[in-house]
Every structure is written in C-alpha cells, then in structure tokens.
Design brief:
Blueprint: E1 3-7, H1 11-23, E2 28-32, H2 35-45, E3 49-52, E4 55-56, E5 59-60, H3 61-67, E6 73-78, H4 80-83, E7 92-95, H5 100-116, H6 123-138, H7 143-157, H8 161-171
Parallel strand pairs: 1-2, 1-3, 3-6, 6-7
Antiparallel strand pairs: 4-5
C-alpha cells in the first residue's frame, strides 16, 4: 500500500479521511496539521501525494504546493467557493462535501498521477529558489528563515515562489 499525507488544519477532518482511505485499502496515511509539517514529512519520507484542505494556520495549500518536490502531487478538498480561488492547474480539486466514492476516485487519480511522476516544475525554478535561499543565508538568515522570507515575498506580491526567488537574486 502506498503512503500519502492527509493534511487538514482540523484534526477531525484529517482523521475521518485517513480512516476512510486506510479502511478501503487505498493508501497508508500520515496525518499532518500544518503546511510546515507536510514539508518536513514529504522530504523525510518521500511521500508522493498530499490530500489536504484549502488552508492551514501557516499558509494556503497552493503555496505549500510550490514548496513540494517536483514528484509530489496534491488534491485539495474544500468548498467550491474556495476551490475557485486555486489558480494552479496542476492541483487536483474535490468539492466538499463529497461522497465516499468521489473521494476514493479522486485519490486514485491523484495516486495514478504520482506514479506517473512527470516533473511539473523546471529544474531552473528549483535552482533559482535554492540560489535565493543561499543569498539570504549569506546575510545571516537560517535556511528556514530564508525560506519563510521567500514565501512572504511571494505571498505579499501575489507571485510564485520561483518569481520571488528571481527578484531576490536580481536585487542582491
């Protein structure tokens, strides 16, 4: 059985979805409640798929997606009004409330895409983000602080993380 991350700010929602997926034999689930926890878990365990809500206390799921490795796929489960705000076409969406079969079908599609593993981000973007972090770390920031600084710039300007990294590289 493949591992996926189930991540919701509300623990009850995450537990219900985890139980449903595990009972059906769809996937073994790791439960997370914050975007930062998802980032760490994806990198530590090489998990290829995330099922999550629209937003966490530490940021929206769409920005989290930008920070995930290129092999990782995401399914956001939320109200249609929130899903309409998601701009990235690579993120799968499921309108809540959803039936058990709709959720299982969406997770199966997510897992199929994760198994196919086409890279979604260019190597150049990944290198830009890494280089911008290095520049910020050279100014005395820790890696985590550098990453958060890029995220903050990205969110405040309404641009992708790679674009924020490019701005940092051009200005420093």
């Amino acid at each position: 059985m493949e591992k996926i991350i189930v991540a919701f700010a509300g623990v009850q929602n995450g537990r219900r979805i985890r139980e449903l997926l595990e009972r059906s034999g769809t996937a073994a689930c790791l439960l997370c409640t914050s975007a930062d926890q998802v980032r760490r878990t994806v990198h530590e365990q090489q998990v290829a798929a995330v099922v999550c809500g629209y937003k966490f206390a530490d940021g929206p799921a769409e920005l989290l997606y930008e920070d995930l490795p290129a092999f990782c796929r995401m399914l956001i489960v939320a109200s249609q009004s929130l899903l309409d705000l998601v701009q990235n076409p690579e993120i799968l969406r499921l309108s809540a409330p959803a039936s058990k079969s709709e959720l299982l079908d969406a997770v199966e599609q997510l897992m199929a895409e994760a198994r196919a593993q086409p890279l979604r981000r260019g190597q150049q973007e990944q290198e830009q983000i890494a280089a911008a972090k290095v520049k910020l770390m050279a100014q005395g920031l820790s890696e985590e602080e550098a990453h958060r600084a890029l995220q903050k710039k990205s969110m405040s300007a309404g641009i992708k993380l790679a674009q924020a990294a490019q701005m940092v590289l051009e200005r420093l």
